[in-house]
Amino acid sequence: MTVLVQHYKLKEEQTNTPEFVRLINEAWQSLAPSDKQRYENRARADMARYLEEERLFDERQMEYSLLHKAAVDAGEQHVWAGTLPLRDPQGNS
Predict the structure, then answer these.
(1) SS3 76
(2) What is the pLDDT at residue 10?
(3) What's the whole-model pTM score?
(4) Between 91 and 51, whose confidence is greater?
(5) Distance of alpha carbon 89 from alpha carbon 63, whole angstroms
(6) Residue-range domain boundaries for the chain
(7) Residue 86 or 15, more confident
(8) Which residue among 15, 27, 30, 75 is the one 20 to 30 A from 37 at the CA level?
(9) What is the distance, to the nearest Å, from the Cα of residue 66 to the centroid of all Cα atoms in its chain?
(10) Residue 88 CB coordination number (10 Å)
């Protein structure tokens, strides 16, 4: 984004406008397929990283929920004081 801001001599507040979006679109459309590939590869890698982080988060959240339920069932609510039960990704309570 900085390159476009400098190239078009835009102020920071102008970067959140339909005109700026149009300029970005034009810049993207003018890129050669080989130039686009670099960004598309990074986007795919970033999406894979995000999905893995999301999977790990949901897994840990499930583990926490099970531990929390076991503690509550055992009458150990004081151990978990101040915590909120987290959602179960499978929708189970």
Answers:
(1) coil
(2) 63
(3) 0.54
(4) 51
(5) 11
(6) 1-30, 33-76
(7) 15
(8) 15
(9) 25
(10) 14
Contacts of 58 (CB under 8 A, 6+ apart): 89
Length of the chain equals: 93
- The structure tokens 């039960």 sit at 85
The pair of three-digit structure tokens given for residue 51, joined into one six-digit string: 């999905």
Average pLDDT over residues 63-68: 86
For the chain, percent of residues with pLDDT exceeding 70: 65
pLDDT single digits (tens) 17-43:
788 788 889 989 999 999 999 999 999
CA-CA distance, 80 to 42, in Å (whole number)? 41
Distances (CA, A) of 53 to 14, 45, 92: 33, 12, 21
- CA distances from residue 80 to 18, 45, 54, 61 in whole angstroms, order as listed: 49, 37, 24, 14
